[in-house]
Amino acid sequence: MLLALLRLTRPANLVTAIADVLAGMAIAGYFVLFKAPPAPVGWLCLATVGLYGGGVVFNDVFDAELDAIERPERPIPSGIVSRQAAATLGTVLFAIGIAASFAVNVTAGALAVAITVASLVYDRFGKHHAFFGPINMGLCRGLNLLLGVSILPDQVLPWAWVGLIPIAYIGAITMISRGEVHGGKAGTMRLAGLLYAIVIACIAAIAQRRQQLGTALPFLFIFGYYIFPPLWRATREPIGRNIGLAVKAGVISLIAMNAAWVAAFASFPLAFLVFCLLPLSRLLAKLFAVT
């Protein structure tokens, strides 16, 4: 039962959410402060685990009937976890995420509430809309990046625009993920590839502006290495299995993207520490489903 509840939270994905907030903290400039207290870092890492976990749990709660047909092996349709128990778990996780955010500051708390609302809207309504669904899902990740920025509340507004970059990236992943079960279209994969390239170019341009391009480039190269080959295979043969592997690679590779953010705004050693979350996420992805 406990293992099944853990499966609902997508553990590999939770690690990527932690990388998001660490990247946001770097963007805010928190890691270059003299004697920056570590407690807010811990609170926001806990917060993002709760918020992301709550979002993916409610995804399965709302999809229980569809999963009974398309993915009967999942915890809820298989009968291992009741829908009510899953909803309770999701609610507790959201509550933890919001409480931990307010423990840092009011701005972080408000962003946590916004992430909760955006997640529930996507789980219940957004995922069924071809255009607004990917934007809605991307918004959740964009707000999660800003949750990290909120460690210094006065930096949220100046850097709010960077949230558009994960919106574009996650929107692309969400767009192609619609073909995981029944297959997709090569044109959708090509559009996703274009968005991937734009995201990499934007981060590279920001790093160049901050005179940190050389520091960020290794992580951007690794990022591209992980996301483009599986997407290319899905483009050539857009069947469910290939698309699923492309989606999985896209989600886990968020850690490499976040390491690039840290490299652009902080230092190579800190970026490397964030990048070290990637092997953990990849290991968890072998044990638990990512999508």
Low-pLDDT parts are none
First-to-last CA distance: 20 Å
Sheet-strand content, in percent, reads under 5%
Query: Can you give the mean pLDDT?
Result: 94
CATH H-tier superfamily: UbiA prenyltransferase
Please tally the β strands and state the result: 0
Gyration radius, rounded: 18 Å
Care to describe what's here?
- This protein has one domain: UbiA prenyltransferase (Tetracycline Repressor, domain 2).
- The radius of gyration is 18 Å and the shape is globular.
- The model has no long low-confidence stretch (mean pLDDT 94).
- It has 291 residues and is mostly helical.
- Helix 6 (106-124) runs antiparallel to helix 7 and helix 7 packs antiparallel against helix 9 (164-177).
- Helix content is 77%, strand content 0%.
- The chain starts with a helix and ends with a helix.
Short description:
The chain is mainly alpha-helical.
What distinguishing features does this structure have?
mainly alpha; Tetracycline Repressor, domain 2; 77% helix; UbiA prenyltransferase
Q: What topology emerges from the helices and strands here?
A:
Blueprint: H1 2-8, H2 11-28, H3 39-62, H4 64-70, H5 83-102, H6 106-124, H7 132-149, H8 156-159, H9 164-177, H10 186-209, H11 213-236, H12 240-252, H13 254-265, H14 268-275, H15 277-287
Helix pairs in contact: 2-3, 2-7, 2-13, 2-15, 3-5, 3-6, 5-6, 6-7, 7-9, 9-10, 9-12, 10-11, 10-13, 11-12, 11-13, 13-14
Membrane topology: Multi-pass membrane protein
Subcellular location: Membrane
Protein name: UbiA prenyltransferase
